[in-house]
Specification:
With 146 residues, the chain is mainly beta. It has no helices and 10 strands.
Length: 146
């Protein structure tokens, strides 16, 4: 039986892509909060997660997303995590977030295992979050001398 990975940290973003050389491309990384213009908010979020593990893991993975203490999404899948490359891209999942609160992304590696939090981020209302902000003033373009 494989050793259960221990979550080190996660990075929440809009999408994750893997290059041919194995590098991850994180697209739309969230900072200290997710700001939305209205609730319910329809989001698609991905999570890059780094682990501590000394042997490869190949087995089931349960995931859940909580809004405060209420589960708003859950899934079960198979996971393969290499000991020399202990990072896993949890592909984008669609979420319907009904109100402000704190989103927590959690994983466990056995049915009776403990949930491990990968990422926690507040989600708040900001009506101007979706609007394009116009610059207050704009300098004319620099034209090199001829």
């Amino acid at each position: 039986m494989s050793e259960s990975p221990k979550v080190r940290f996660g990075i929440l973003c809009e999408d994750i892509r893997r290059e041919d050389n194995g590098k991850l491309i994180l697209i739309g990384v969230f900072g200290d909060a997710i700001l939305v213009k209205e609730f319910p908010a329809l989001l698609t979020l991905a999570n890059a997660v780094w682990f501590d593990l000394s042997t490869p893991f190949d087995g089931p993975l349960w995931s859940q997303v909580l809004l405060d203490d209420a589960q708003i999404a859950a899934a079960k899948a198979m996971a393969v995590i290499e000991a020399g490359r202990p990072v896993m891209a949890i592909q984008p999942i669609p979420l319907r977030v009904p109100k402000e609160g704190v989103l927590s992304f959690q994983l466990k590696f056995s049915e009776d295992g403990d949930w491990q939090t990968t990422t926690t981020v507040p989600i708040r209302l900001n009506p101007s979050a979706g609007a394009l902000q116009q610059p207050v003033s704009q300098s004319p373009p620099i034209v090199p001398p001829s």
